[in-house]
Write a structure and sequence with these properties.
about 55% helix; about 350 residues; DUF4297 domain-containing protein; elongated; alpha/beta
């Protein structure tokens, strides 16, 4: 039983770390170059476009409402040591350090219970309660007294000013004991607000959050130092979800010269194939370019040139696929379906990517 509980806490801790990465991705969206959960320096490493870095420690409290305050202090103190080491001793320029918790009182200065349902929010050093600021200053004092900053030749006052400028706290409501819906509610709302503000898929926040969570988990389990996620990777998730909308198979099958029964049957594999072939945005750009060239070379093409292009060109893309357990006719249908979606969703795909200033040409 103890081992099972420990495994559950570990799994929940990694889940919280991935959710924290989603929040930081959104908060730093415009300036973000790359992000990695289970980073090379901290729980989450973010490189910004200007070459500076954000380092974050994400620590989950199993009982965020009634946990012992000394336990919360210890969690914070351990993270603070690591964060300060990167703030003052990193070879990279540091934009900020962030301590992320699922407890409204992460430093253990209060004994009163707090509600478990509230929005995600962040606090700068100056926005922290005075008692919390004093606690952080005391922790920094200990680091200085232990010659922690000697090699940087920083005085206590200088170090404190740097800390005040660069240190922040992020609170993400997350109680591992709750149901799935309640546990992820605040982060889903945060994702939803991001989608609204960016004019993206506003009704798909849960699906996008789940896929981002899976992507961060997969990335964090890859311990290669060079394996990071970019805006392109995370925005591509939205593209895949957008393009995986149901097909009007009766109309499309007729125009693509394929059997509607086969299209109905094989359409369940569309997402599998689209994910596989569309790992590279460059593939879409190739299709768009090929289509434009086709139209230029066929001046008398009909107004339904998309279908003409697909029906005459689909064989050119056979080498992009290596699909198991599929007949030649089924492969033709799948390729035509992917081409159809890439062409008819061209403006949508470009809008999604251009939201993050990702080059689509």
């Amino acid at each position: 039983m103890v081992d099972n509980q420990r495994a559950h806490r570990t799994k929940a801790g990694f889940t919280f770390q991935d959710l924290a990465a989603i929040i930081l991705f959104i908060d730093n969206f415009d300036e973000l170059k790359s992000i990695k959960a289970e980073g090379n320096h901290e729980d989450i490493d973010i490189e910004l476009l200007d070459g500076s870095w954000i380092y974050a420690q994400a620590k989950m409290i199993s009982d965020p409402i009634n946990s012992n305050k000394n336990y919360r202090k210890r969690k914070m103190s351990e993270s603070f040591t690591s964060l300060c080491n990167n703030l003052f001793n990193s070879k990279n320029p540091v934009s900020s350090i962030v301590y992320i918790s699922n407890c409204k009182d992460p430093l253990g200065e209060e004994d009163t219970a707090t509600k478990s349902f509230y929005p995600v929010y962040s606090l700068t050093f100056d926005q922290l309660a005075k008692v919390t600021q004093n606690r952080v200053e005391k922790m920094l004092d200990k680091k200085i007294e232990n010659d922690y900053l000697k090699k940087k030749n920083k005085s206590k006052e200088e170090a404190l000013e740097i800390l005040k400028k660069d240190f922040g706290v992020q609170i993400i409501p997350f109680d591992p004991r709750h149901s799935y819906e309640d546990k992820f509610h605040s982060v889903q709302s945060y994702v939803g607000n991001f989608l609204i503000n960016r004019n993206l898929m506003q009704n798909a926040s849960l699906n996008i959050m789940r896929n981002w969570h899976d992507l961060f988990r997969e990335n964090s389990e890859n311990y290669s130092k060079d394996k990071v996620l970019t805006k392109k990777d995370l925005l591509w998730v939205i593209v895949v979800i957008e393009c995986n909308q149901p097909f009007n198979t009766d109309t499309i099958a007729f125009k693509l010269n394929v059997d509607v029964a086969i299209m109905d049957e094989i359409s369940i594999r569309f997402k599998e194939v689209f994910d596989y072939i569309s790992e590279r945005l460059e593939f879409c750009a190739t299709i768009w370019s090929d289509e434009e060239e086709y139209v230029e070379n066929h001046p008398n093409v009909s107004t339904s040139y998309i279908y003409d292009f697909i029906n005459n060109s689909w064989r050119n893309y056979l080498d992009f696929w290596d699909i198991d357990d599929i007949t030649g006719e089924e492969q033709e249908v799948l390729i035509k379906m992917v081409l159809y979606r890439i062409l008819t969703k061209k403006s949508t795909i470009k809008h999604i990517m251009e939201t993050g200033n990702v080059n689509v040409d």
